[in-house]
Write the structure tokens for this entry.
Amino acid sequence: MQNANQRHRRHTRTSEAAGVVALLLILTGCTDDPAAPAGSTAEPDDSSSPDIATAVLNEPDPIVLLGEDEDVAGSLSIEISQALFASAPAVVIAQSGDPESIEQGTSDAVDLGVPLLLVEAAQGAEATDDSSAATSGATQDAAEATAQIDEIARLGADYVLAAGPKVEQTLGDLPDAQIVTSADDIPDVSPADGLTDLAVLVPDTDDDASQAAGASAQAAGAEVIPVADADVRADPEAITALAQAQPKRVLAVGAEFGPVDTLTRRVEVASTGVQLPGGGQSLFPGRRLVALYGTPSTAGLGVLGEQDLDASIDRAQELAAEFEPLSDVPTVPAFEIIATVAQGDAGADGDYSGEIGVEELRPWVEKAGEEGVYVVLDLQPGRSTFLDQAKIYEEFLQMPHVGLALDPEWRLTPTQRPLGQIGRVEAAEVNSVIEWLADLTAQEKLPQKLLVLHQFRLSMLQDEDQIETGRDEVQVLIHMDGQGTTGQKDSTWGSVVDAAPEGVPFGWKNFFDEDEPMLTPEETMTREPTPFMISYQ
């Protein structure tokens, strides 16, 4: 509110003065129109009235990305001026690299409601002993400020407010605008109607470009939202701000926010305000999941079934808390629930996989979400396909806190049976799940989905380098499930990491009974790369 008050101060001062004059004229009877109603004034004398000018604003497209070609501060300051202002009675110019100049320029631009442009320092300004050298340097720098001078002309500015002594030398002589060094030298400027339906995303840094962009955006009446990450979904505060503002248009300053189609999808998701357990809408590296693995009502498949629902939530939270002091990101408790269980008999559908009903799992999935516990639904499909089984749980996968895991050990051919061999899955089948899950996530404007791929033999993931990891809506994680001695597990870990597609995060599983010995949290966190998901079975 302070900036808004400053911005209206000069206009208010002029209005108050006019009101005082009108009142005096009425009280003394000195009006041109004897029938004029109380409070009205005579036609003002244009020769003595203040020159009140207003900036004219543009209406940007729904999604605009600036700085795609270059991130030079001066260029970005011009780009945002062109995007927001059709014309302006004045322009503020500050010197890039000079904090005092930037601070003063920011204050003046917001106060006046006009753009802030940045220029480099005048080299000739330092040559105090040789006036000819100083003149030469200033002329050179004025040539380098051609783009800023052109922008001043495009805006039709009558005044250029130089924030700092070196700015004048950088600009040189301006044929159509007067350079001044104080806002008091500019006739009163009336702020334009603000772009209140526009949000401007700027990097949450103190660099010159971000400050100048923020100043011009504030001057235009837009909502300025600092973003701490190139992916707005990774910044909880930015998500909250977008959800509250509900802007009709968004302008992002900096190529890192792009490309435009990606920015558009991310802004749509961020504007929902829905966040994952641990905050934000993208999974890694913003959190570390610590999960209980198994299925409800039976202890034979993992520790998740060793206690009831409430006790399982408590146990997952306590386990995640053990990793908190060891982690540089928040640790989030999780359930990895085996939703379809490989079984020895074919069953009515002949797929050797028993699907747990949606209603049976519902209390576990819903209560976990209420308690900040992330849920991964694990599929052991037998002779079915991963995609067919994933669709059974589409209702749950429309919930923000629910992801999916594929366990190729239990993916069988039409002639295989569970425990007769280690299963495998082709990359094409994995990609079909990724595409379906990504499309569902985009359609529902959900936070990023986790897709876990279990692996303890390289053969389990066929054509692994062909697995699609580029869908922004889905985070693929490869989870090492090997058991045994620490040496055996480390050997498997190394093989799994080396074979993985570039850039994927990894998970690690600790077995209470089968590991010799089971690693402590401290030992687990020494694996390289550090796992982002740690499961206990």
